[in-house]
Amino acid sequence: MRILVYLKEIPPEEERDLYQDTEGINDSDQNVLMEALNLRDKEGGTVTVMVIGPSTGEKTAREALTWGVDRSVLVLKDGKATGDILESARVLAKAIEAEGTFDVILCGRQAIDGDAAHMAAMTASFLNIPLIAFSKKMEISDGKLYNWCMSKDGTERTECCMPALVLSVKEDNKRRHPNVCDIMSAYAGSTVIPVIKPERNTPEKIIRQVGQYTPGKKHKKGMMLAGKDEQELAGQLRQILTKFTAAK
């Protein structure tokens, strides 16, 4: 099963405080990432992340790799055009098509479009696939996608064929955390984030591939840290990352 998660457009730095109080992946998108990774554990397959935004979005793309996703892609978009949701959806849809066919596309609900799911609806329309909005629970059986979604009457069960785009509001996902091996791999100098860049003045042929990265073999050995509290664990992790960076 091929699963894609797209992370929200990154606002320009001068506007960031209006939309989120932290840099990088917000809580809504972290929930979706965990849902995708848990689904991969259950159904098998791969998880690809797409970050749409300016070149500084590479930091968010690398952060996604620390969570253990299989591939992370940056879709370049001028930070000054963050308010153009229609154009963002068009660019994102073209980028998804350039990457190939996915069974499930997941996104969170909160974005800079006013928390109204406009980006998800427009992207699904450009891709010509079903949109499942405000899903609280998702299951896959016999090649079909089943969702339990929020509605004015409580919860409604939906059924559709794949591929489909799911706007998820599930918050009770199995908790996951980045591990040392994935962190080291994500920030290694040899790890290059592939970039998809819109062509100027060619809206119907908007994508060209300008970078490519093929993940190597994953580290087979992990490392367990032990400490009396989170502060001591954080100190140990910082020492490990400092030595790794110095070695590079």
Automatic annotation (TrEMBL):
<dbReference type="InterPro" id="IPR014729">
    <property type="entry name" value="Rossmann-like_a/b/a_fold"/>
</dbReference>
<dbReference type="InterPro" id="IPR014730">
    <property type="entry name" value="ETF_a/b_N"/>
</dbReference>
<dbReference type="GO" id="GO:0009055">
    <property type="term" value="F:electron transfer activity"/>
</dbReference>
<dbReference type="Pfam" id="PF01012">
    <property type="entry name" value="ETF"/>
</dbReference>
<protein>
    <recommendedName>
        <fullName>Electron transfer flavoprotein small subunit</fullName>
    </recommendedName>
</protein>
<feature type="domain" description="Electron transfer flavoprotein alpha/beta-subunit N-terminal">
    <location>
        <begin position="16"/>
        <end position="197"/>
    </location>
</feature>
<dbReference type="InterPro" id="IPR012255">
    <property type="entry name" value="ETF_b"/>
</dbReference>
